[in-house]
Fold:
Amino acid sequence: MMKPRGIFIAGNWKMNLGPQAAHHFIHQLDDLGYPSKPVAGAELSGKIKVALLVPAVSLQSAKAACVEKKWWKNHLEIGAQNAHFETAGAFTGELSGPLLHELGIQLVLIGHSERRQYFGETNESAGKRMASLLLQGFQVIFCFGETRLERESGRTQETLERQLTEAFHSASTWATEHKTPLLPTHWKNLALAYEPVWAIGTGITASPEQAQEAHAFTRGWLKAAAPGKAPPSATTQILYGGSVTPENFQALLQGDDVDGGLIGGASLKPESFFKLIETGAQVI
Ligand code: PGA
Structure:
């Protein structure tokens, strides 16, 4: 099976695994044979991208372990789970782009449903974060997805459309206000993550058909978006997230528009994260 956009596998550790555990995790991944075992062969490297989004306190030690293993900027990317749109100031508890750059971090997750549900993130604020971080040269994974109620009442596509429209409108407004348009060089650093809220941490995964349908809809939305106001539809990776496991990942990846996974629970153990990478490498 061919994946024209390659595969992107990102583990989201959420509020788990501190600096020591992060260091240990990376050493265990090495013991399991990563990267040479699942990603063997020059033809695969470059087509599969693997990242871990770790708690802020674990960024430094996770990065150091990757540097030690010579995986840094190569086989394993380390990213943050959120960052503010302003670059500095009175925002207690937040991280900024320059603070992350100081650690050498270049990847940030934005708009996760837990940020939306518990910490007041909106499409508008997530769109600003997306624009600001892309303009600062970060790679960004932007999350969106419908609730159970929205799906059960037949409003899935309407919800996705609203989230994407509002977030990208907010992103382009931010960029215009800062007199720095979002260009193709910025958009190429954006990946989207479709994460149905009802599937996150519930053990209930979207069926491969449901995932593909939402991903195709998203790609269609990107295609219809005004040029320059969103990333290009043909090349943007769209990841699926929500109760992905080593058992169901292969079936989910069958969807033509499913370019990888954003994985919470199953990324917390090196063994299952390793299996997810193996599965990704097999479908390329
Ligand atoms: P889960 O989380 O894999 O534990 O469902 C996914 C996510 O929230 O990114």
Remarks:
- Residues 12, 195, 200-201, 241-244, 262-266 surround 2-phosphoglycolic acid (CB under 6 Å).
- The chain has eleven helices and eight strands.
- The two ends are 6 Å apart (CA to CA).
